[in-house]
Amino acid sequence: MIEELRKGAEQEKKFAEYSYKMYRDYRVWIVAIILAGACNFLLMSLGMGLSVVASVLIALGVVLIYGIILYVCRNRSIAGMVVRDWLSHSRNRRTERS
Q: Please, are residues 39 and 58 in contact by the beta-carbon 8 Å criterion?
């Protein structure tokens, strides 16, 4: 059990370091800004007269969605580990009851 806790702590540390590096990586945010600009350009080219406030809100929304997608993709492996732990825990409880 102690060994499992050590492995879990090591994995959390590695994930924290990876997350920090990803958010510090300027290329990630440059891509997000380019996507936001492309989205605004597309809407303007479709003939929608956007105000400056609307353009800024759309750009912020695109950057937010991009950040959420990155977060979900990075956490997919951690979510899988959590689900596996939960399933094994519930399976152990069922065997203890019977």
A: yes
DSSP-based three-state secondary structure for 59: helix
Residue with tokens 């994995």: 11
| Verdict on whether the full-model pTM lies above 0.85 | no
The residue assigned the tokens 């689900």 is: 83
The pair of structure tokens assigned to 1 is 């059990």
Asked if residues 37 and 56 have their Cβ atoms less than 8 Å apart, the reply is no
Give the contacts of 29 (CB within 8 A, at least 6 positions apart): 63
C-alpha closest to that of 36 among 62, 55, 65:
62
pLDDT digits (tens, 9 = 90+) for 54-95: 777 877 787 788 777 777 666 655 555 555 666 676 666 666
Query: What's the rounded Cα separation, in Å, for the pair 33 and 40?
Result: 11
> Which is higher by pLDDT, 22 or 27?
27
The sign of the CA dihedral 62, 66, 69, 71 is negative
